[in-house]
Records
---
Amino acid sequence: MQNTNFSNQFNGASRRSLEKQASDDIQEKIIEAILFCCALISVLTTFGIVFIIFRVTFDFFQEVSFAQFFLDTKWTPLFAEKHFGIWPLINGTLMTTAIAMLVAIPLGLCSAIYLAEYASPKVARILRPAVELLGGVPTVVYGYFALLFVTPVLRLFLPLEIFNALSAGLMMGIMISPTVGSISLDAIQSVPRSLREGAYAIGVTKLETIIKVVLPAALSGIAASIILGISRAVGETMTVLIAAGQEPRISLNPFQSVETMTAYMAQISGGDSPRGSVNYNTLYAVGAVLFLITLGLNVVSHWISNRFREKYD
Amino acid sequence: MSSSISRNKSQEPQGEFSANVEQRESTGKIFEIIFLLGLSIGLVVLAVLVFDVFKDGLGRLLSPGFLTETPSRFPDRGGIRPAIFGSMLLGGLVMLISVPIGVGAALYLEEYAPKAWWTDIIEINVSNLAGVPSIVYGLLGLGVFNYLLNFGPALLSGALTLSLLSLPVIIVTAREAIRAVPDSLRQASYGLGTTKWQTVWSHVLPYAIPGILTGVIISISRAIGDAASLIVVGAVSFLTFNPGLFQRFMALPIQIYTYITRPEPGFANAAAASIIVLLLLILVLNGTAIYLRQRFSTFK
């Protein structure tokens, strides 16, 4: 079809060929419109999330006041004596996230530095996907491992409860380290060679070059990767649901059981609270807080990596 | 004056430099080992994890009927067939739904989209969606598919939810693959008098397929391993039949979660056995991806 079209055009534009072109144009327009609709779905998804979460959250706040939600220190929506203080859930989330990041940041940075600066290209080609495999393991598997391997081993020398924030946090850290690592690796690799050579030229060792030249130059990318890692830890569900338990409490003791926002959400949706009840609506209220926190973190991460991106040529 | 400054400057570092170069180099060596250790910890944990799972689960996996029977109340009886079927159906549907939409969106953003404020919004949207937690997608699925469209807690609701979950990753990676197609290829095609879509379909897409496949596989394996959103949408933990499109459903991660939370001792082994199946499924997917990628990249 395109051939006849092509030759007709050059044999003088007859009416038929013009018609053909026009139909081609309509076809092109339709295709473009279809592709546009595909892209639009992402926007609709966001609208859907925002609309659905905040509509029910609005219902929730008709019955429970902001003060009850943000000032109370107890979270017992399923008990006879109801309290709706979100802080115990935020406490649990923060603690598991903090433990996870204490693992993920050093591990992620170590692998990024090793892969970028020390490993030969051949070795890096094998090691990088191997490390990224960690992020591809389903999180329910990490939950299994945390509860049935890590906790029993740690209990040999630590006074851990069976469900505890520590094991869950440790496994989450391992799981998130490739996220921190691969974005940091990109940042480190985009530091130009000339900066390193300049450092070597004044007689600095490799380690000093990395610490005093390469890492500061890649700092914005590294910071963005860490914030993205925090966001993933805050939103992670299965590992904390399985290994950290379901006891909302305000405490800084990682040996105890805690409940995170995500674990509570999974717990309430697995239960049988009727739709429209206050219990059920807590699912959306907690979801709204979770959504806003992770959205904020993602935006900050993007902002840092765009705003502070060092421009080298 | 100026000479005294330069002398001072050159004296100070000289003293530091010559004195401990060896020590500094050996510190460097020590840190190289530390970096390598940091990298290996994750891999060691992964190895221990796989070993532990196989040790606990292999016996149960090989016991008769584990792959072919429906679940049982007793830890050493029954199997995970409905969960396997559920996961494969979910994976297939997610692929059917999210790949065309994701690649279409990527094509639009890379090849068609004008530079305007609203295309920027779509772009920002996609990258933000990639960071939304899976359980929040569960809320979306529950609200839109279960209640608004009235599918109820059926397999279709789960598949659609997982599709939305995997879309952003597909879009982002497909865009990168499409962006990497050299412009000369497009110009050569236009030079023959083709329309835009003909160029995209017969030149840009085939060239970008290896990269697109990578993204597809990453996101499908993530969708197959995801449990959080399915819990919210309403996956069940016990089925005596293979799930259909409009029926209640199970999936392997949900089955694993259920087995883990059972207090009786034998269920841990059943969980481990199911984990082996899930990991193998993901491994097969990734293997297929690597194979297809190599096949399609030969003409580059």
---
Amino acid sequence: MKLRTVLLASAASMAFTGQVVSEDLPPCDNCVDSMTLVSWGGAYQASQVKAYSEPYIAMTGVNVVWDESSNEAVAKLRAMNEAGNVTWDLVDVVAADAIRLCDEGLAAPIDHSAVLAEAPDGTPAAEDFGDMIVSECFIPQIVYSTTAAYRADVAEWNGKEPDSICAMFDLENFPGKRSLEKRPINNMEWALLCDGVAKEDVYDVLETDEGVEQALAKLGTIKDQVIWWSAAAEPPQLLADGEVVLASSYNGRFFSAIEEQGQPFKMLWDAQVFDLDGWIVPADLPEDRLNRVMHFLKFATDTQRLADQAKYISYGPARASSAPLVGKHAELGIDMAPHMPTDPANAKNTFLYNYEWWADNRDDLDAKFQAWLAQ
Amino acid sequence: MSSTPTATRSHSDFPDDGVVRAADGTPLKQRLAKALRREKLRSFLLIAPLLLFILLSFIAPIADMLFRSVENNIVQDTIPRTVEALKAWDPAGNELPNEPVFAALHDDLAIAVEKRVHTRLGSRLNYEKSGMSGLFRKTGRAIKRMDEGDYKAQFIDADEDWGDVETWRVIKRFSPAYTPGYFLNAVDAEQTSEGIRMKPANERVYLMLFNRTMVMSLMITVSCLILGFPVAYLLAHLSLKASNMLMILVLLPFWTSLLVRTSAWKVLLQQQGVINDFLVWTGIIDDANRLVMINNQTGTIIAMTHILLPFMILPLFSVMKTISPSYVRAAKSLGANDWTAFWKVYFPQTVPGIGAGAILVFILSIGYYITPELVGGTSGIFISNRIAYHISSSLNWGLAAALGAILLCLVLILFYVYDKIVGIDNVKLG
């Protein structure tokens, strides 16, 4: 008991010197002493632990348990809901999953301005998050992008370097294996873009059966050169092993491989697809658990905390007021801004991903894509 | 001596009908049956905790899961009034349902949207007809804006698919509480207005996957047998000390985590991996033509053969241990050469071990999914990978249950066939 107090005190004092602690964290009434948070593991979860949960534990002393099941969150939440025993308190999911969970009534709707902290200048949270609130259940944290990276040392390329996403489909100039995600989202759009479809027409074309055929046919031209990944940690590993020369993944994973591990890759920001990641609260939590989660959420999504997360990983904070506070990497000391997907130099040619379209059509395209993949 | 009451009674009170009786006069047969019954009850009570455990934690969940493959309550539960109103509608005709059906649908959907269950219904019907998921989502968003009266026009205005008779046929067809739909899907067929037919060629995957799973499991079993037989023979015929030493080498990988062994194969087999590097270094292949041994069927077969090898070696070893060397010596002394003695005398005695090993490896490999997922790419995955996909990604639990049920039946059929050919009493594990 005594040791714990000492540890907590020292952690709190360290936090104070780092100016991480919010000045006025009100006490939590009728709250449980522990909560289970669900995230994606790896460098991303580590950044959340450092920026959100460690300072929160230092201040309140609650017991936080982390689960790394976010990639199966929809299935598991549905199973928990059917069994009537939801053991999770807060779940980190991508925007598309948040929309789906909200539509199915598995996530609780949130009144953003009422429960989240306002910006330092008094702007209400809903306004500060703005368009990032893609669903009424979704509390955005970060903007990341699905983009590509390539090895800078491929002898067969004779000094050429890809400058467009279409290099993915160009086996003549850029021979070698590629790695793409084992799902239709992003791959179908890139295939159409490189098959001559204009950016603004992509979803209209994809809406038709012929459009789907066209995208699959384009992907078919490189099918036997693709290693399909399902965990985002795979592509940087495959690039590092020299198994593939070109791969898609999330920009933060490539950042950590390039900057933190010094791997010989380069980023290819062309046609990067922005996506959002954030929290959802499972529907129908008991009141004392819900109070604790809301208390934590208010703290963990305030302007300073979101900016803090960017010290550990190159994902952009989802609050407008956080952006000016993004500073240097916590260990390497390099400027983080040029590594953010939203940096003007990186965002020259961004592809706008249509959540609503995917929410409506995902069931159809998943089935077609998976059948195509298996054949 | 004969003055004790029982003894006196037994001699005088019971008829002398030849029935052997116990001291208290009940027939001995009855007493024996009673004793046996008590014995049985006692042993049953002893195993009861285990039985209960198996029933609760194994049989019941499996039964529940298998039940999902035919269960279809979602349509009735989500839009009960529409299902009722549709009873009067004839799906064979080319006319849209009339206004009361649309009104019923409006009432149902208004409640469903409130409870946020309409998208689940959309996903369910989307398994049968593509586009239904989007239709229900879109209509769900439009339902709040609808005015009273002339719902038909408003629905068609919200999405023109409501004006398509086929949409209504699908809803009516999948209204009953039980459906063969999942099982049909699992064998690449579908139920349409014209009856049951095969799906378009570019959407057929499951029969091919079942077939691939069977063929590759057979190949894995055969390669385990070819590699494992000599090892087991060696183990059974070396001195105790040497064979114990070798046994450790068989068991160590067996005790190592499955994921570790699979990842090790990734490192060994990949194009820039140890084996390819070695072959390039020795000049057997040149740098541009590195072998592709992983993320395809080859990878799956190699890794799974290695992982399942102990399941072949151990039963073979224990059977070979019990074969007396005197039979082979006798055969040789009667003039058989080494090969004849082995093939005619030794080998037939190892068949029970081969049977046990083969059935163990085959059934285990049919259900494998972690290893194929990691090293199989797209051409080396098994049907179990699709089951896992439907459970955790596409959330089509009904289809996953149907695929699982078919897989279970296949294993039972194979087991039966195996019993007919080899005889299950010939299988020996030691």
---
Amino acid sequence: MMRIVCILFVLPLFVSIGAVARCGETTGDRFASPSDRVDQYLSASWQETATRPSPRSGDAEFCRRAWLDLAGVAPPVWQLRRFLADPSGDKRKQLIESLLSSSRFATHMAHRWNAFLLPAESSDDRQGDAAALHAWLRQQFLNNTPYDHLVGGFLTAGGKSDQGPAIFYTSRNLEPVKLAAATSRLFMGVQLECAQCHDHPFASWTQDDFWSFAAFFAQLQLSDSNLRGGGQAIEDRSGAEVTFPESERVMAPRYPGVTSPPEADPTDFRRRQLTIWLASRNNPYFARAAANRVWAHLFGRGLVDPVDAMDSSNPPSHPELLQYLADYLVEQRFDLRELYRMLTSTQAYHRTSAIVDGQRHPPDSFAAMNVKTLSASQYFDSLHQNVLLGRLNASADSPQVEQAVRDEFLRRMKAPDASPSDYPHGVVQVLGMMNGPEMLAATAEAQSGLIASMDAPFFSDTERIETLFLACLSRPPSDSELEMFLAHLNDASAEQPSAARLSDLTWILLNTAECFVCP
Amino acid sequence: MFQTPVFNRRQAIAAAVSIGGSLGMSDLLQSITAVAGEASENDQRHCVLLWMSGGPSQIDTFDMKPAHKNGGSIKEIATAVPGLRFSEHLPQLARQADQLAILRGMATKEGDHQRGTTVMRTGHIAGGPVRYPAIGCSLSKSLRNPDSKLPHYVTVAPGPFARGSLSPGFLGPKFAATSVSVSGPPAAGNFAQLRVDHLQPHGFVGPERFESRLALWESMQAAYLKTRNAPNTIAQDTVYRSAIDMLGSNAKDAFDLSAESDTVREAYGRGTFGQGCLMARRLIERGVPLVEVTLGDGLGWDTHANNFEQVQRLCQQLDAGWSTLMTELADRGLLEKTTILWAGEFGRTPAINSNGGRDHFPQAFSCVLAGGGVAGGQAFGATSTDGMEVVDGKIDQQDLLATLCKALGVDPTSENIAEGGRPIAIAEGNPVEQVLL
């Protein structure tokens, strides 16, 4: 028996495109200086509440933010030092450009999308297939494949050449119901599965809509071919159908909310039929969901939040802004990198996340930056790069060991669907953070790359402390912090050698709240 | 050794004093207030889940069929309750039968280990859009004392199988179980060694050094939270403080079974399950609301072959661990506050297969409730003479979980909020009033 209670549903667009464009404005004007336009939408929303937005962030805060958001890792110490010392006026712009065009951006985007695409409870024995998906996604982001093409490729994938997306289907056992639910959540920001059990009394979508949508996935099968590399391939074969629950009624594939059947496909490839509608500029949900996701990535929460609950009971905080971003994305032919470039150039993205005059802005006002909890991979990769200096152990570990340690950390810290505005971990995870193997490698004097590197006599204690702060928190210490840490290094009553005291300081910084967030 | 609750509170105060130095005076006062609060209320309820991994045979334990060929070779014995009969391999539990309510009419629709485990632990079929939490997570959330320094839900040796069914689901990792694992096979004839991962600071960090780290960490945290008091940074701080409290409190002692005499340890049984039951007693004494102990590492109860030998061996562990736990809890006045549920993912076929085994059977099997809030000394529901079907008192997993909730004084209809703002009741079934006090 299904016991799902569904209280949310979907209503069509909240704001029409015309409402945003001002009188006499041409399309060209509308997209002439988009970053300014975004800031105008925000400042208009602050007038009513007389909100005074937070000031611009300092360079260190911004550098950490841009690296973690776009490269998925904290800035390397030497890069951060160079950035801070750079006197040029457009250095933030240059930083964003170099990050967006780096392969790290593609890798980080692939991490993020892997997490979205795999089911929360996916088992650990599918590592190989998850890696294939990651590689496939990374290639798309390296090529900057337009988002509609990316999703189209994803939704029609099968066979040997593009086995990457297969795990999306196999991890849901090729079940049309699950695939329909996941697809509508991911690419339309809509929980269509609510209509699985009953029509919604207030919305135009029906149970029939859901089951006809599911019919697009009715013909999936695992292919018999033996693939090298461990991945599985899928293909569509005519035959299987979806029937309406507790009936024999075969559901013909149909787009939700659309009465006419889809145009016939030459080979009756249903997922291709679906893609033609789903990943198109005419689908009112598609660009909005994508733009909202990018906004949530950069600002810590969506204009509609959570990002997969874009329905009438959960209106956007800034409806006109959301529509503008969706239109912009369409205008840019679904160039995601361009949307990132535009949004990271807004004043909003450059504001500090620190509280000024004791006043905390509501997180959905975007009058200050929201601090975002790091994902497990962001934390581990930053630790690995800046503190372990690329090696877990000075006595040369193999790449396989490193990968295993990373996987183990990610497994322990796994937090599917966690919002960056939550801290999703419990006591078990925190004990692992404080006393676990990664922290051991980072703080055991004999093993830690960073501590060993500071052994050289030409370093002063002040320089050592400064390096620790840059490595762990991406900023230099304040005067009082410097004083406090110097006192610890020079504490005559303690009997540890100086390396042990540096180990203490490293441990402290790595366990602070500051080290767990993107500022 | 007899420990009164008063003694425990004193221990807690001593622990609070010892970490007070590093955490500052206000924390010390807070700890003492919290301890005082516990003392005045003292109505903490506890739940013990005895999880039988693999699916235990009902016919060879609590629903004997001696008159039928399906009954097999294990004999039945009388219990302390006239008319109620158990397997001969559960003699100590038989003496405590007045505490037990046998539910003989359990039936679910899942005969697969993974899916059956999910159904029994969450009340819901696997794979729907909502990530339902394990019942242990929901109950520990309802029963927890927010001021306690102890974990709310401890699971001993959960085994590698179907870990997803232990997940806190939409409740979030804050309500995840703290897992106690077995460190290696025990040396011959020795007690099973149980441990909590990462409970000790790294070997080279002594207590003094750890405290000096915490003092500096404390000032860094305070400064950062002043400028960034967002929900995530506050939550990070809160969870860290809980973990640090646990490291510095007597919570850790609960996990140290070497503090018990060999006589007591022996009485529980030397294996993982017996030592796990002993740990459950130590955790309950210290106020932990929910403890789960698993019997049958991997799928031990999955007796497709040689059922009778395997069930005998498993029952010996079950009988010693469970009965000693009830005796010791009763001695401390804690049994009436502790509700115990014995369950696995399903039962086993009444018919005996050609390998002398029994196969998966979700259509008619038994679960047992015991202790606080439970009207013991009875069997509720019945199966047919051949054990093939439920003929009376048929219940499903939702009814079972709702009954457990009520025995614990938790309203099963109380709701938690799932993803997307949906309110979800802890359990949706009808409580079996006949087995409730």
---
Amino acid sequence: MILVWPIVIPLASAALLLLFRKWSGLVRWGSVAAAVALLAAGIWLLATVLETGPVAAQMGGWPAPFGITLVADILSAAMVVITGIVAVAVTIYGLAEIDRTEGWHGHHALVHALLAGVCGAFLTGDIFNLYVWFEVMLIASFGLLVVNGTKKSADGAVKYVGLNLIATLAFLSGVGLLYGVTGTLNMADLSGRLEGRQEEVAVLVSAMLLLFAFGAKAAMFPVFFWLPASYHTPSVTAAALFSALLTKVGVYALIRVFTLIYDLDVPLVQNMLLWGAVLTMIVGVLGAAAQNHWRRILGFHIISQIGYMVLGLALATPAAMLGAIFYLFHHIIVKANLFLIAGAARRMVGSEELKITGGLYAARPLLAVLFLIPALSLAGIPPLSGFWAKFLIVAASLELEAWLITFAALAVGLLTLYSMSKIWLEAFWKPHPDGPDAVVGKVPMAMLVPILSLATLTVIIGLSAGMFVDAALAATEQILDPTAYIEAVLGARE
Amino acid sequence: MESIVSILAGVLVAGGAYLMLSGNLVRYILGLTLLSNAANLVIFAAGRMTEAAPPLTLYGEKVPAEGVANALPQALILTAIVIGFGLFCFALTLAYRAYYAMGTARMDSMRVAEPREEG
């Protein structure tokens, strides 16, 4: 029963928020309350999983592998918790940002539908069900993209929808082929049935189709163009939610599928992941360096950071996997925060085009400091969380003596610092081209609270990294040795 | 039977790709629909195809007779068709909205979100 709540709460609140959308105040605060409830359900789930090991439940009472299984190990439970944290942050932020019209058009309901899709994708143990949750997530994100009704977001949505649907079709065909080969859709069951059959052509084809689908979802090279085209067009609340969660669901699916179902020992799979990851890092950061629009720089950064996470998976040693998982958690918090700050700054300087902004440091020093924390963390400056994340990945690649990859990871870190300093210099340091009076307004409390909390969380993770690394280590052990996971799913047969 | 369906799926993919490359948004969406039907056919073929052998279990027995098709992929296709239909409707509405907002259905000219750099 405990597994159902993180899905039921957002689904029910999405329906309720849509019904009551005329009562603006009720809906706005209801949305925050539902996000808090989701966080509480996530924490409860994580506490249970830490105590008793992976938990599984069979929906509709059909025993695995016939029914649909919900299952949580430490990784998926922790992802649900962090989804809850982001949900609380963006819904509070939305109190100040989302206007009545956008709320009336269903913004709040769509946010919770998206959260339901994300949590469903983390908790399902059935690969076709994973496809369904991806669709829930996708259709909610389509809605969130266009709900503010601007020309720009219609344009962004065309590219987002057009490219994401192709990935979805690849996912569907991959699942179909996999079923044709094995006769099962349950991921734990698939793990056993594919033992020794990893090199079969049909299995490899399905692996490649899923790699393409999840890679496109996670914005890996070369299928990332939808992300920088669309992430700067919707409201900041929606963009922060997307940047924190959507690509990470892709990475999560890659980690889950390529450890549980497919083996990373197959050279084709490993090389694709490895070189895809390296190129993703490099291309993403070069794209960021070329941009002059605040949120577009951040969008390109997501791509390069995804490269680090996939690199950790592709290197396939326990140390690298640990790095990938730690990176996943750190990046969700940092990236959501950077988008939120971009929105607060836009409110004060009137634009996100860096050339025509400035003077924020002189006018709003607190916001400047709050920007520096996630920005430096993203670039990997100690002692913030990003340093440990990068350190774990680089240390793992040094251990493998993969010099070229180590060099690429370090160089990309430097370039990240370069493009972050570009935002800093243009928006914060230099005076505003229209004089110091052009910076108007104050940061509303509803925006300040989530920004401050996420920044504090970044610092806490950085300073007490040992504790979080230990937690990530426990998650890594379960990922690399899925016996307990499989037992939880299939052992519940009786 | 499988080979005919495979060829058909290939033809659909080719036609879909041709439409999607034309640069017109409406054709792009129609191409996507062809692709989604190709994906459905792939799943259909993966579940074995038999003629006039319904996948039913005789009364009192626990497994169906030999040589019948697997019914599950067909249920999967049904789900996929429903989802695909919803997405198709959304995409068409979006295309109309984008055409209405930008005055063009040519994807190359839709540059509001990513304006060309000057100079």
